[in-house]
Amino acid sequence: QVDILYLQIIKCFGLFVFLFLSGQTLFKVVVKSLSPKELVRIHVPKPLDRNDGTFLVRYRMYETVNEGLKIEILYGNEHVAQSPYILKGPVYHEYCECPEQDPQAWQRTLSCPTQEPQIEEDFASFPSINLQQMLKEVPKRFGDERGAVVHYTILNNRIYRRSLGKYTDFKMFSDEILLSLARKVLLPDLEFYINLGDWPLEHRKASDIPGPIPIISWCGSLDSRDVILPTYDITHSTLEAMRGVTNDLLSIQGNTGPSWINKTEKAFFRGRDSREERLQLVQLSKENPQLLDAGITGYFFFQEKEKELGKAKLMGFFDFFKYKYQVNVDGTVAAYRYPYLMLGDSLVLKQDSPYYEHFYVALRPWKHYVPIKRNLSDLLEKIKWAKENDEEAKKIAKEGQLTARDLLQPHRLYCYYYSVLQKYAERQSSKPEIRDGMELVPQPDDNTSICRCHRKRLSREEL
Ligand SMILES: *[C@@H]1O[C@H](CO)[C@@H](O)[C@H](O)[C@H]1NC(C)=O
Ligand SMILES: *[C@@H]1O[C@H](CO)[C@@H](O)[C@H](O)[C@H]1NC(C)=O
Ligand SMILES: *[C@@H]1O[C@H](CO)[C@@H](O)[C@H](O)[C@H]1NC(C)=O
Predict the structure, then answer these.
(1) How far apart are CA 292 and CA 378, in angstroms?
(2) Which residues, in sequence order, are CB contacts of 284 under 8 Å at separation 6+?
(3) What pTM, to 2 d.p., does this model score?
(4) How confident is the model over 104-145, as pLDDT tens digits?
(5) Cα of 322 to ligand 1 centre, how many Å?
(6) Which residues does a 6 A CB cutoff place in the pocket of ligand 1?
């Protein structure tokens, strides 16, 4: 008897399905094409055991199925619950260029939230967006030699761009998500600047004259006005999951180490030397090895400290979760490990910080994580608190994990990106144009991108 308490299937742009199964491990999940005539390759890695009675099953398709997909959940040879589950109609693979022409229908399919508080807040400073002013100001203010800004125009669902400044290699990350979105849904026409550097750029206040400019960045800070997107790190790992990337927001959920009672009762940190408090952390760890295990894995900013503090071996996130408490200290900006740490089942001790990513707004101190002061003066005290209040610590860890699981689902990232582009487009006071020096960013044009698109498409002439 298998007990399926809860099962959720999310049909998500032909890339992933998640099945959350509660019960035992002895079931088998088969994902195949609905029609026996359609032979397609579908990669279904081993279910991820989330160690709390739930499992996460993912798939990746390499070809499109026209009839639909059939998902069987078997215990022995018996179907369980309502198995087989049928997803009717064409299911497209990731590289298939077949945009849904009705963005609202697409958003409904993904169950996108109607409001994202961070997006509302980010656009509050920008009731209207003056492209002419941006064209004049952005190259001068942010496009210098050291610049890392890329100027994009999206017109008729095609993506064009030009680089301002030298340090724009990371445009491969903004390209890849924009292309992926454009394959799935019709994007609004728009013209914007993405900052590929670490630090947010726009420090003017809403009341300043001239006013702030809506630069789009991956990290926000309390003293800047940039509009933020999910970081390139979680975006890329989501797009490349089950391909090049093994550490992504889903796989981490199946690799959270020993169960709570069997975790080492210490706080843990490994990372580069990108902020002074990280070095202090190592110093504290040397003085209090019974409470804290912290090490620097690479020196760049404070090379003179290596002799004194030593260098620790690199470690993957999966091994972090052998420890009960995880210390999150900023790097140059927000530490992009934070989403991964929140998805584990350890308690996160988060350094107070002016920097934030797109989802922090939903997380509360003492509910989802334990706050620590910026200068770490209360870190040891907080670790002792956690050790002495194990039940409470476990509860906060669980609450943080559940909330992060919800916020960081792959389709929620797509929803977020789309919503930012949509909000931005609504506010443009003139028409976007393809500017001098812009080049087309092409969709992949090889045999992996072949697909038959059944959606009504605008022909090139209509565009
Ligand atoms: C804790 O570890 C012990 C020894 O490896 C193991 O027998 C036990 O099942 C573990 N407890 C849990 C709840 O995983
Ligand atoms: C750490 O910061 C707090 C304010 O958050 C301050 O009161 C305290 O004096 C600082 N401690 C040290 C050692 O600098
Ligand atoms: C795509 O083309 C490459 C080289 O031309 C070939 O090796 C590969 O098998 C092809 N893949 C498919 C799915 O046809």
Answers:
(1) 13
(2) 292, 294, 376, 379, 380
(3) 0.92
(4) 999 998 889 999 999 999 999 999 999 999 999 999 999 877
(5) 13
(6) 259, 261-262
